[in-house]
Protein 1
Amino acid sequence: MTTLQEIMSPKSIAIVGASDNKARIGGRPLAHMIEQKFSGGIFPINPNRDTVQGIKAYSSLLDVKEDLDFILVAVPSQLVVSVLKQAVEKKAKTALIFSSGFSEIGGQGEIYQSQIKKISKDSGLRVIGPNCLGLFNSATNFYPTFTSTIDRATPRPGGISIASQSGAYGSHIYMVAHQRGLGIRYWMTTGNEVDLSVGETIQLMAEDPDVHSIMAYAESVKDGKQFTKALDTARSEKKPVIFMKVGRSEVGAAAANSHTASLAGEDAVYDEVLRAHGAYRVRSTEEMLDVAYATKPRIFPAGKNLGLVTISGGGGVLMADAAFDEGLTVGPMPEDAQDKLKELVPFASPMNPVDVTAQFFNDLSIVPKFTDLMLSRGGYDALIGFWTSVAGSPLLSKPLLSSLKHAMTGYEDKLFINCMVAPEEIVKTYENEGFLCIEDPTRAVVAMSALMFFGEKFNVNKIKKDFKKNKYFINNPQKKLNEIDCSEILRSANLPIVKSSRIENIEDVSSIYENDNNKYVMKILSADIQHKTDVGGVILNIENIDQAKEAFKKINKNVREKAPKAIIDGMMISPMIKGGIECILGAKIDPVFGPIVMFGLGGIYTEVMKDISFAEAPVSSKKAEKMISSLKSKDVFFGARGQPPVDIKSLIEAIVNLSNLIAANSDWVDQVEMNPILVSENRVVALDALIVTK
C-alpha cells in the first residue's frame, strides 16, 4: 500500500531530460532542489552533457549505480515508454511525467498512454501524470516541478495540502494560498491520471498525520468508488476537503431518453456526492482560500446557531442576511439576557445581531461583557464580530484584542471570526492569539458556514443501509420494454403504478368499461416510443365506449404518420386520476458514481423549475425524507398555508424501493422514470412508467 511519504519523501531522484538551462522545463526542478538544498541524491540524466547545473550527469537511468526511488521524466512523448521500462529495471517506486502528447491529443498519444498504464499496472511503478506540472514537499525541500511560483514564493510548511488535476490552476491555488499566509506542506498535480488520481491523492493526504486540511481541484473523476472512499476517509479523520469541481456537462444532449437523464446531469450528481461524503464545494478561489484559512484553529462547530456582535447596525444586518442565505440560524438572545445587555448599554440592540453601538469607543470593557453573555446565555455555536476599521486603529487595536482575549477565556473551544480592516502587522497580532480575521462580512459568514458544514459531517456516524440485493433483483427481460412491461416490473418492486389494461384491437375496448361514469386515458404501447405525446399517442378524458373506439383510431393514425418505423404492441388504457402534487421519481446509472435516485416536482414543472434532489442508491428512509425536505418546494409536501401534508410515509417508501431496484439491477437497467407521480394526502400513484435498458 503506497503512502504519501513514499511518494513525497524519496531518498533519491533522477531527472531524465535534465537541462543546464534553469529556465527550461527540464532545468527548473533541478534548480529548485539545488537552491532549496534537497538532502537526497540528485541524478541528472542527459546523454549530451557531462554535468548539468554543476552536478554529474548520466547517459541513462541504467548508468546510475545507486538505487533510485523517484524518476522525473521530461523528454518527448515517444521516448517516455522506454524511460519507464528502465525505471522498472532500476526498481524505482515512483515516476512523474512532465511530458505532454498523450490522451489529450488522441491518436498515437492515446497509444503511448495505454502503454504507460500497462507498465504501471504490471510492475507496480506508481505513475503521476503524464502531462502534469509536478509536486512538492515543502518539509523536505523536494521540488520535482517546473512551476514558476517556487521562484517567487518559497513554500512554508504547514498543515494544508493541495491536490489538483490541473497544473496551472494548481499553481494558482498555491500562489494565492501563499500570499494569504497559509503554510502548504504537500502539493500534487495529477494531469492525465494514468495511475495516480486526485481521488487517491486525497486518500493519501487524509491518511498522512502531517495534513489537517485538503484543498482539491478537478475537472472530472474516473473512479467514483475510489473518490468517495477518499472523501469518507478524510471525514472519518476529521480533515476538511475543500473541493472545486469545474466543467458542467451538456445535459441537454442526455435528454433523449428521459427527464431523469437530462436533470441528473454531471454537475448535479457531483454536487450531491461531494455533500453526501463530507466535502465542501466552493464556488471560487477566494471562497476556497477563505475556508482553508478558517480551518487553521481546527474548530468545527457542531451546530448552526450563529451569534453576531457588531459596532454597526448595518454590518449586523448584512451578516444576518448572509447567514440566512447560507441556511444558518441567527437565534435571538434569551429575554433575561437581553435585559442584562440593556443594563450595560441602554441604547444597544440586544437581540442578535447584538449591536454594542458607538459606546464601544468609550468603554471597551463592554466587548467581553457582551461576548460572555452571548456565549454563556445565547447558546451560540460560534461568533462573528464586526469591528470594521476600528480594529486597525493604533489607539484601539491593542485594547480591543485584549478585551477579546478576556472575553474568550474559558471558551477556547468556540470559534470567533473577526471582521476587520487593518494593516497586515495588526492582523498578524490577532491571528497569533488564535483569532481569525476576514475583511468582508459576507465572506466571513460563508467561511463560518463551511466550518459548520464540516462540524455537522464530522459528528455524523455513517450508517450503512441494510440492502438485500436478492430481494429486489429482477431477471433481465432481454428486450426493449413497452410501458406495460415497465409497469409490471416496477409493481413487482412495490412501486405504486396505476393499473392499466392492454388492448390489441378496437373490439377489446368494450371489455374495459364496467362503469361508464369513469374517465380513462388511452396511450400508444410501443417500446420504440418513449415520448408518446410527441407523436399524438395520448388521449385523455375518454368518457364512453364510442369515444374510446374513436381514440383508438386517432392514436393509430397519428403514430403511423409520425413514427412509421415504430413497432406497435397495441394500446394501453387506464383510469384518469386527478388531484395531488405532480412529482417525478426517477433513477439512473451515473457513469462515474453508479446508481443514483432522484425526486422532485414533476409534470410540466420538471424542466422549468428543476426543483430536484439526488442521492446515491440505495437510500435509507431517513435519506429519502431528507431528499424531500431539501427541495425548495418542501413546504407543499409537509403542509403549507393550511393544506394537509401529503402521505409522506408512502412517498418515502416509493423513493426507497426505486433506489433498491436500480441498485440491485444496475447490470441491465440504465434509467427508470415515473413522471408524473401524483402525491396527495392519502395517495401516492405513478401515472407513467419508463425503464431504459442498457
Note: The first helix runs from residue 4 to 8.
Protein 2
Amino acid sequence: MCLKTLAVLAAVAVAGNCAAQGVQWNGFSLTGSLQSDILVPQDDASIGTEPYAGDVVTNTYLNLALSYKEYVTVGARLEYLDYPLPGFERDFAGWGVPNIFVTGRCKWGEVTVGDFYDQFGSGLIFRTYEERSLGIDNSLRGGRIVLRPYKGVNVKMLAGKQRRYWDHNDSWVWGADAELSIDQWWKRLGDSGASWMLGASYASKNEKSTPHYVSGADGKLYMRRLPETVPAFDVRTQFSKWGFNVLAEYAWKINDPSFDNGYSYDRGSAALLSASYSGKGYSILFQAKRSENMSYRSDRDMTGTSSFINHLPAFAYQHTYALPAMYPYATQPLGEWAYQGEVRYTFPRRSALGGRYGTTLKLNVSHIRALHQVENAENVYYQDINISVEKKWTADFKTNVMYMNQRYNQQVVEGHANNGDMVKSNIGVVEAQYKFSNKLQLRAELQYLHTKQDYGDWMYGLLELSVNRKLMFTVSDMFNNGETDLHYYSFLATFTHKSHRVSGGYVRTRAGYNCSGGVCRYVPASKGVQLSYNYSF
C-alpha cells in the first residue's frame, strides 16, 4: 500500500475515533459515519481481470455533521478515491471534501447553502441522490429554501450546479415544488383516517449551447441550434384510506436534444400509476409506467450514469439472491412500457396450509417492453415471473423456496448479446435457516440457473454461520457449469459491535452489472483480499 493511501486512511480512522466519543455539550452535538471498502487485488487471467488502479484500491468516506439544537447544522464529507475500486472509471480518482453545507431551521421552514440532495415527487423530473455502490453522486451545489407557511402546505425552491465526479457542470439547475395535504384542511376527510395529497413541480436547466454540426443531404455541414433552457413539469396526486393507497403522476419536458436521444427535438413525457391494498394477512400491488424521451441531464453530451437531473424508477423486482440478480434490468430512458404486480398472502396459523406457524405465498410479475412494436424485432425488454413460499416449520427452523422465469433482452440492456439477444432462464432457490440457540444460527442457500443463452447454466451455494449475534462466517461459490467451468468464491468473516462493523476475507468476483432502482454500472471481474469497515455515531 502506498504511503499516501496509508496516511489518508489513518487520518480518517483518527477522525472517526475522535468523533466516536459522542461529543455533546451546551446544545451542540456531533454525528457522522465512516465507511471504508478496501481491496488488495490480484491478477487472474482466467476470469479476465483488468489492470487495477493501484496495489491497494479503496473507496473511503467520512461524514461529519455539527448541530446546535434543532436550529443549525453544518456538515461535510471527506472522500478518498485516489485508487478507486474496480468498476469506477478514472474520473472518480482523487480525494478531498466535495460536499459541505449549512442548514438553518425555524418553525416555518429551513434554508440550506452548499451541497444538498432532494427529490420532487417520484423523481420523474428532479432527483439528486447518492448511491455509492453505483458511483452516483449528483448533488446540487447552491441553495434551497423549504417553506411550511400553513398547516398541510410544503413548498421548496432550489438552484445550483450539479456535481460531476470532482467538478461541477457549467449549467444551472433550478426548480420549485409544492405539495398540499387536503386532509389537513378538510376536517371530515382527516377524521375519517384518509389522506389526500396534491403536488406540482417545475425544474429547468440552463446549458450554454456548444457547436454541434450535422451533415445535410447536400453533403454540407450545418450547425444545430440547441435550446439553452429546458424546462420540465410534474403533477401528481396520492390518496390513501383503509389500507388502500393510489399514486398517479404525470411529467413532461420540452425538446432536449442530447447524446442519449441522438440529438432529437422530440418532447419527453412520463406517466406513472401505482395502486396497493393491504389487509390482514395479505397485500396486493399494481404499477404501470409509460416513459418516452425522458433522459434529462445537466450535460447533454454526457454518457453513463453521470449528470442525470431526474430518475425513472424501474418496475422490476429487486432480487437479493445471487442468481436471480445476475441479469438485472436498467431503465431505458428513450422509452418503455413497464408493468409490475405483486400478490402476497399469509395462510393463517393452525390452518391446513398455514400449519402451526403460518405460511406466506408471494407472486410477483414484471413486464417491460418497447413503446412501439417493431416487425421482426424482439419487443420485450425484460420479464420476470417469480413465486416464493416462506414457511416456518418449528420455532427454530424456517425455509424459503422460490422459482423464477426470466426473459432478459441483453442487446437492449447491455448493448451486446452472447448467443442471441434474449436470455431466457429458469431459476430455483432454496434457503434454510436453523437456530441452534440464541447465540448460534446457520443459514444456507442453494440456487440453480438454467439457460441456453449467454454462458449457459450456473450453480450457487452459500453457508453462513452466526455466532453470538456479533460474529458471522460466510462461504459461497458461484459456478458456471454451462460453458466456462469457472468458480467465483468468497470467504468472509464479519464482526459487529455496537455501531462498528468490520468485514474481511478473500473473494473472486465475476464481471457483471451492479444495479439499484433501474440504474446500472458495469463492474469488471476482480480477485483479492477484501476489507471493509463501517461505523456511525
Note: The mean pLDDT is 90.
